[in-house]
Design brief:
The complex is a heterotrimer. Chain B is mainly alpha-helical. Chain B has helices spanning 2-24, 37-70, 78-90, 93-106, 114-138, 142-150, 155-185, 198-206, 210-238, 241-247. Chain B has one domain (35-247): Orthogonal Bundle (MetI-like fold). By secondary structure, chain C is an alpha/beta fold. The longest helix of chain C has 18 residues, at 169-186. Chains in contact: A-B, B-C. Bound molecules: adenosine-5'-triphosphate and magnesium ion.
Chain lengths: 337, 248, 392
């Protein structure tokens, strides 16, 4: 399926661009990778650079530290010609398509690729890393919710450990919504944050039980066991570090925010090898084009991303070192060449 | 009089903004909706609670401490105390709040929400109070203290009947500075989960709903202006008439 | 009564501020402490109310060792006026005066009564000034309140550190005069510090002249002027000792209390007869005579003006208005100044109601001064003084 899709893209390219210098020397190609301003994006910038270098491209520069809109602007203006972003971001924010609960990762990806092609971009492969908000519980709470003062009843449908949204929702509903939770301000307020989860899973958190704070503070409070429930970002290494249990979004309330790459059509036309190199790199992460969605696959992919992020956030490696050691363990990319 | 006009104009402007956004703007650009009056009210109460509790404690500590270190017996303590309080003040308010939370965690106290923020505000607000109480007390003309002593006043009587009445406006001015600063600093409390008017300011920013930021900002600024004016009133009310005449 | 016995003060830094001071101030007298700046005046005074602890020696107030009192009690019973007035700016005049009475637990009525009384005493209208604040008073008024405050609880002993310092000479003289008048009534035992020898001579019953912590001379003002103990005292008192002595004399003591007069209602004939009678008694030709009307002083008459006047006229038709008069309390140096500045030879002495009390002539002034320089006892004024001079 993957290969089919690449084929489609390549065909489309030939159709759009005709036969311009398809066989250009890889040395002549200027590739400017752009990336955003957080750990995962820093690493993604380096992953792309290393993958391209492994494929023989030598004129690769990385510009990172951009805001989400700045990255898109750079791609549109041509200052950048290769980037990694999140499917939901491009779909909803940049293309203005409607993100609603229940959308499948592949649908979002395919739709977005199709629209962006007309914008002059070739959409490359994706992972299943789904980096978005997620509710999480401390290990204690996930294992033994009944031990908490705020929990009087653990309903039958909750199968310990508590690790899905419907289970968490059932716990809240059985206990007057009074289980303390700490969440980030943005997640608290935006309509597609906590409110969306509450709509989809039909539960209430009482005002008194809900504390809003900065992202860092919420994580810290959760790590200190001051709150049993809180919000995390799905690929944050702190989850593994603190042994949090994330609640699986079984109804896909949150649209997919899977890591994927895209390039300007000119770049791909000039050097189709770019697409191959990047897709090979992305294939190091579980999930991909055409894969059917499953909680297991998503968890697996998220764990890979989390561990990668942890190398920078926890082990203090540089993004480049992290990217290099990750790719060294991946057969699809051969760094030695 | 001119200051009164400035106060009315400023407050009018801030409240005008607040009323406009809250009662007349129905749909804001951004990811959230403008706050309703009840929400602003609740947040304001939360905000006031933080500041009032912090200030009450800061006053209870700072005023006696400032007075104490101005006494001849304890004068030697004034450089370290003022130095310590000075450091508390020179650290940005955000940092004081940020530092408090791990300290609470280290002491195995709840590091989230109200108390770490209140303690940070106390520390942040202590300096102007101590400094002014100290300055007010030590700037009382030594001749007056000597006169009191010579007439047979005890040290306590001199402090209560001579020094404090003369220093009171300076002492209250310190409280005023401290409170106004803390009305501002308390907007950062939300980062530690303490709520208050910082909540709309920051969530507005996080969700690009700048009208909500404007609501929180206008409410916090109006609160600061009102508090400043109120304590200013207390200041002139407490200032002995004889000193008011001397000033004018 | 205040008594110091071999009092020594050595400050912790080694400054010997007071060296073996012994001094006795009898009840009801003013003892002026004077000496160059830094000689230990303030220190000596503050040891009396224990603002400064004594290093050694004894101090007795009303016969009791001050160490036997609790310092606060001691101070509440000794009036204290500090060098810088030191009125409490946040208190009204009334509250300032009531400080010590309040400390002593007087009732509100007693305190108010006392405050009014004291304001009256220092010449300020209670209704106008009781509720004013110090900042609403002139410098002189503040000094008055300072004095009233130290009299608040009517203590028998007062310590006053330059109570009239830093004020213009005219107001200062006035305050001094008023204070002497008050002291006449209240008869306090007072230690009064000053820098100013003129003030010392005027105010002191006794003067204690200090230098570098030591008492150099302790005597009455005339004694100090007449018999300076050493060159330091002589220098300190100044070369114009004689002029200063004039200050110590009051007009009353020098004037002729029964000068000859004519009445304004006398006819010219009667007046001429009075002149002639005077001439016969004194053997000299008198040109001017005082004119009275009953008890009241009206002016002068020149005997030449009586000549050639119609017989039915009266003295009042030719009366010459007086250029200046003086009161009996005026010091002689002021009287002399008045005489000189008005270019007159004789000065009529009157009371506040303009009643004639006596006559001071230029000659009598001259004689008193001569005696000061030679140090001889002043002779009693004689009638002789009142005659003479061709000018008024
Ligand atoms: N607390 C102190 N410690 C050390 N020395 C002091 C202290 N107080 C006063 N002195 C010194 O004692 C001496 C006498 O001081 P005092 O104040 O009694 O002088 P004074 O005669 O009142 O002077 P002035 O006329 O200027 O008021 C001075 O040399 C002064 O410097
Ligand atoms: Mg002195």
């Amino acid at each position: 399926m993957k290969r089919v899709c690449v084929g489609v893209v390549a065909l489309a390219l030939l159709f759009v661009l005709g036969s311009t210098s398809l066989q250009a020397q890889q040395d002549d190609v200027d590739i400017n990778v752009v990336a955003k301003n957080f750990t995962e994006e820093f690493i993604m910038g380096q992953l792309q650079k290393l993958a391209l270098q492994a494929a023989g491209f030598s004129n690769v520069s990385v510009t990172d530290g951009l805001s989400s809109t700045a990255l898109r602007d750079a791609m549109e203006s041509g200052d950048g010609n290769l980037a990694m972003d999140y499917t939901g971001t491009t779909f909803g924010t940049h293309l203005g398509l409607e993100l609603k609960p229940g959308l499948s990762p592949d649908f979002v990806y395919q739709k977005m690729a199709q629209v962006d092609l007309a914008n002059g971009f070739v959409t490359l492969d994706r992972s299943e890393g789904h980096n978005t908000f997620a509710m999480a519980a401390t290990a204690n709470f996930a294992q033994n919710p009944g031990d908490f003062d705020s929990v009087n009843t653990v309903p039958d449908e909750v199968e310990l450990p508590v690790d899905t949204m419907p289970e968490l929702a059932a716990l809240y509903n059985a206990n007057d919504g009074s289980i303390p939770a700490i969440i980030d301000l943005e997640f608290a307020e935006r309509d597609d944050g906590l409110k969306l989860l509450q709509r989809v899973y039909e539960f209430e958190i009482s005002d008194d039980a809900l504390t809003k704070a900065s992202v860092g503070k919420s994580l810290q409070a959760l790590a200190n066991n001051e709150f049993p429930v809180g919000m995390v970002f799905a690929t944050d290494p702190a989850i593994a570090e603190n042994n949090f249990t994330t609640m699986a979004d079984t109804s896909r309330a949150f649209p997919p925010f899977d890591q994927y790459a895209y390039a300007s059509s000119e770049l791909i036309a000039e050097a189709p090898g770019v697409a191959t190199a990047i897709n090979n790199m992305i294939s190091c992460f579980p999930g991909g084009i055409g894969e059917d969605w499953s909680i297991e696959l998503r968890n697996e992919s998220q764990t890979v991303w989390r561990n990668l992020n942890a190398q920078v956030a926890v082990e203090d490696k540089s993004p480049e070192e992290a990217a290099r050691s990750f790719l060294e363990d991946c057969d699809a990319v051969d760094l030695s060449s | 009089m001119r200051r009164y006009i400035a106060f009315v104009v400023l407050l009018g402007l801030l409240l005008g903004v607040l009323v406009w956004v809250t009662s007349f703007v129905t749909e804001a650009q951004g990811l959230m909706n403008p706050l309703a009056w009840e929400e602003i009210y609740d947040l304001t109460i939360e905000h006031i609670q933080m500041v009032v509790v912090a200030e009450a404690i800061a006053i209870a500590i700072g005023v006696p401490l400032g007075i104490l270190i101005a006494l001849p017996q304890f004068r030697a303590l004034s450089p370290p105390v003022l130095g310590f309080a000075g450091v508390g003040q020179s650290v940005p308010s955000l940092a004081v709040i940020a530092i408090m939370s791990p300290i609470f965690a280290l002491l195995s106290l709840n590091s989230t929400g109200y108390w770490p923020v209140v303690v940070a505000l106390i520390i942040y607000g202590l300096m102007p109070i101590i400094r002014n109480a100290f300055a007010g007390m030590s700037n009382v003309d030594p001749a007056l203290i000597e006169a009191g002593r010579g007439m047979g006043m005890t040290q306590g009587q001199i402090i209560r009947q001579v020094q404090i009445p003369i220093a009171i406006s300076v002492i209250v001015a310190g409280i005023r500075t401290s409170t106004t600063l803390n009305v501002g600093a308390a907007t950062l409390g939300v980062l530690n989960g303490a709520g208050g008017l910082g909540e709309p300011i920051l969530s507005g920013m996080a969700t690009s709903t700048y009208l909500v930021t404007l609501q929180g900002g206008a409410a916090a600024a109006a609160l600061a202006v009102i508090v400043d004016r109120l304590i200013g009133g207390v200041e002139s009310w407490l200032t002995p008439k004889g000193l008011l005449v001397a000033q004018s | 009564m205040i008594e110091l016995e071999n009092v020594i003060k050595v400050f912790p830094d080694g400054t010997e501020a007071v060296k073996d001071l012994s001094l006795k101030v009898p009840r009801g007298e003013i003892c002026v402490l004077i000496g160059p700046s830094g000689c230990g005046k303030t220190t000596s005074m503050k040891m009396i109310n224990r603002l400064i602890p004594i290093t050694s020696g004894k101090i007795y107030v009303n016969g009791q060792d001050i160490q036997t009192f609790n310092p606060q009690d001691l101070r509440r019973n000794i009036g204290y006026a500090i060098q810088q007035v030191g009125l409490f700016p946040h208190m009204t005049v009334r509250e300032n005066i009531e400080v010590v009475p309040k400390l002593l637990g007087w009732s509100k009525q007693e305190r108010l009564k006392r405050a009014r009384e004291l304001l009256d005493m220092v010449g300020m209208d209670p209704d106008t000034y009781l509720d004013r604040h110090p900042s609403e008073l002139s410098g002189g008024q503040q000094q008055r309140i300072g004095v009233a405050r130290c009299l608040g609880a009517d203590p028998p002993n007062l310590l006053m550190d330059e109570p009239f310092g830093a004020i213009d000479p005219i107001t200062r003289e006035k305050l001094q005069d008023e204070f002497l008048r008050i002291q006449d009534e209240i008869q306090k035992t007072i230690i009064f510090v000053t820098h100013d020898i003129d003030e010392a001579l005027k105010m002191g019953d006794r003067i204690a002249l200090m230098s570098e912590g030591e008492l150099i001379q302790y005597s009455t003002p005339p004694e100090l002027l007449a018999n300076p103990a050493n060159d330091f005292v002589r220098d300190f008192v100044g070369a114009d000792r004689a002029l200063k002595e004039l200050r110590l004399l009051r007009v009353e003591e020098v004037m002729n209390p029964t000068p000859p007069t004519v009445d304004a209602n006398d006819s010219f004939q009667v007046a001429r007869e009075k002149f002639e009678r005077e001439d016969q008694q004194t053997g000299r030709l008198r040109r001017y005579m005082l004119v009275v009307e009953g008890d009241h002083f009206r002016g002068w008459v020149d005997r030449h003006d009586l000549d050639g006047q119609p017989e039915d006229g009266h003295v009042r038709d030719v009366i010459i208005k007086s250029a200046a008069t003086a009161g009996p309390d005026m010091s002689m140096n002021q009287a002399m100044a008045t005489v000189l500045s008005n270019a007159i030879g004789n000065l009529a002495i009157t009371d506040e109601q303009n009643r004639l009390l006596g006559l001071l002539t230029f000659n009598s002034i001259r004689r008193v001064m001569a005696q000061s320089y030679t140090g001889e006892e002043a002779a009693e004024p004689t009638d002789d003084d009142t005659l003479e001079t061709e000018e008024l």
